Structure formats: structure tokens, C-alpha cells
Amino acid sequence: MDTTEIQGLGAPRQPAHQTVQNPVRLGQARLGDGSFYVIAGPCSIESEEHLLEVATHIKEHGALGLRGGMFKLRTDPNTFQGLGEKAFEAVMHVKQATGLTFFSEITDPRQIEGFHEFVDVYQVGSRNMYNYALLRELGQVRKPVLLKRGFSATVKEWLLASEYILKGGNNAVILCERGIRTFETSTRNTLDLNSVALVKQTSQLPVIVDPSHGTGVSALVTPLSLAAAALGADGLMVEVHPQPESAKSDGAQALTFDQFSWLMKQLRSVLGACNRELTHL
Ligand code: PEP
Ligand code: MN
Fold first, then answer.
1. Nearest C-alpha to atom 4 of ligand 1 is from which residue?
2. Which of helix, strand or coil describes residue 216?
3. What is the DSSP secondary-structure string of 227-269?
4. Atom 5 of ligand 1 has which residue's CA nearest to it?
5. Distances in Å between the alpha carbon of 111 and those of 106, 119, 122, 137?
6. CA of 11 to the centre of ligand 2 (A)
7. What is the helix (H) or strand (E) element at residue 207, kind and residue range?
8. Alpha carbons 206 and 196: distance in angstroms, whole number
9. Would you say 174 and 185 are in contact if contact means Cβ atoms under 8 Å apart?
């Protein structure tokens, strides 16, 4: 995208978080209505007890969305690939117990039907942003889609990918910046907050930030989350685990329960300073 295309850049304007025109309804809440929506949970669901423990904690501290991978797309095929369909019942029980809105990654169009009953938001992972067959199918569903940015995708390619879903008639699309691959190797990815500020000014879709994958380092998740809140992102997706050192995937970037509670406290302060608040029911 040529930045000269950005309308009114530099001119006095509304704060970024007030410009979204396509908030996405999630149960009784709306993501992109000016408030800040928090989604948290494990990278992968490991058992029903594990998911319930995380869900209970994040709910108590103000998250409305629960994330949890069932079908994992791991770079190394010899690592844990997720519980797959064995996780379905666990998710249904945890949703019943907590009322949280459930986000999970869909890796294949053939999963749409099985997910339909209990997955509230279909997550398209970074590796599938270019999977146009999957995006087209998701254009036909009447449920929200969270579209992560491909780790080597330009902002323009990411927005064009969203159009595959929108063109099918599904307007409930949430963008998620999750970091891109750059020459920098001291963090897992480079969290591109430029893109978030840019997309807030050029697109009507809500955009959230995933600093867990964006940094790969749990100690960096809170500072980058606060930056995301301050710059006007519509929300956050973060990984949380009761014992990150024994997590089956992405332990190095998972927040402990204490770290998550601290993050939520800090978020409230930053949002307050920006005249915003956490999304609540
Ligand atoms: C995830 O959310 O666990 C995940 C695999 O993310 P990404 O698609 O951004 O790598
Ligand atoms: Mn992960």
C-alpha cells in the first residue's frame, strides 16, 4: 500500500479506536465498538481440566474471549499437533461452565461443520492467510472470522485476504496482527504495530494484536500489549498457561496466571488514560 493513499494522514482526526465502522458482535459484546476486547487461553488445549482452569482465571480477570488450539499447524511435524476432535467435548463443557466466547483455529474447510456447534469465532492462522479456498468457504459461514496476518504478508495482501471472506457475504471479520518475519532474530517475530495504526486508518475492520506470537517471549507480552492498547487496537489475543514450562506448545511465550492478572491491571490503567475501557457485558 502506498502511504499517500491514506486519507487525512497527519490531519486532526478522531482517536483511532473510534473510527471502526464494522464492529463484530460476539454474544452480548461488540468487538470494535471503541472498548478493548481481551481473548486469552492456552496455545493448545491439553485436557478439559487444563482448559477449565485457564478459562476460570482469565474470566475472573476480565477476559471475554477464550482461545485454545485443537488442530495445531506446527512447523515441525514431530511436535504435538493438538487433541483434534478429542477436544470438542471439553470445549463444550468449559463454555457451558464459563459462558466465554470461544476462538479456535480452523486448518481445513472440512472442519467447518464440526466446529459450527461450539466454536464462536473461526480463527485463520498465519500459515493459512493465503489459503483462498478456506477463506472463500468462510465467506459462506454466518459466524465471525479472526484473520491473522501471514508472517510474510504485506498489509495489502492481508487486507485483500480479508476481502475473500467479505465478498462471500460474511462481514464479521476481525484482523489480527501477530508479527512478521524480519532480519531480526532476537525475538520470534517482529510485532508490526505500524500495521495496526495503519489499518485503523485505512480499513473499517476491527484489528487486534497477538503479542504472544509477535514476540515469542513471555516477558515482552505485557509491554507490547500495553502499547497495542495505547495505539488504539480493538483488543488483544494472548496465550496463558498454568505451568508454561510444561506446556505442550509455545510455553516460552505463555503468561502465567500471575502475569496475566498483572497485565489486566496494567491494561485498565493504560485504557483509562486513553479514555477507554475493557469490553464488558
Ligand atoms: C496460534 O494462535 O496458536 C497460532 C498458531 O498462531 P499463528 O497462526 O499466528 O502462528
Ligand atoms: Mn501458539
1. 125
2. coil
3. HHHHHT-SEEEEEB-SSGGG-SS-GGGPBPHHHHHHHHHHHHH
4. 125
5. 7, 11, 10, 11
6. 38
7. strand 207-209
8. 10
9. no
What residues have a C-beta under 5 A from ligand 2, the ion? 43, 250
Which residue has the CA at smallest separation from atom 1 of ligand 1? Answer: 43
Q: Report how far ligand 1's centroid is from the alpha carbon of 213 (Å).
A: 7
* Range of weakest confidence among 12-26, 78-92, 126-140, 225-239: 12-26
Which atom of ligand 1 is least distant from the CA of 210? 9
Kindly give the pairing relationship between strand 173-177 and strand 145-148.
Answer: parallel
Residue 259 has a CB neighbour count (10 Å cut-off) of: 16
Q: How many residues does the chain have?
A: 281
From atom 9 of ligand 1, which residue's Cα is the shortest distance away? 126
Backbone angles phi, psi at 177, to 5 degrees: -80, 125
Q: Which of 2-11, 159-168, 189-198 has the lowest mean pLDDT?
A: 2-11
> pTM for the full model?
0.94
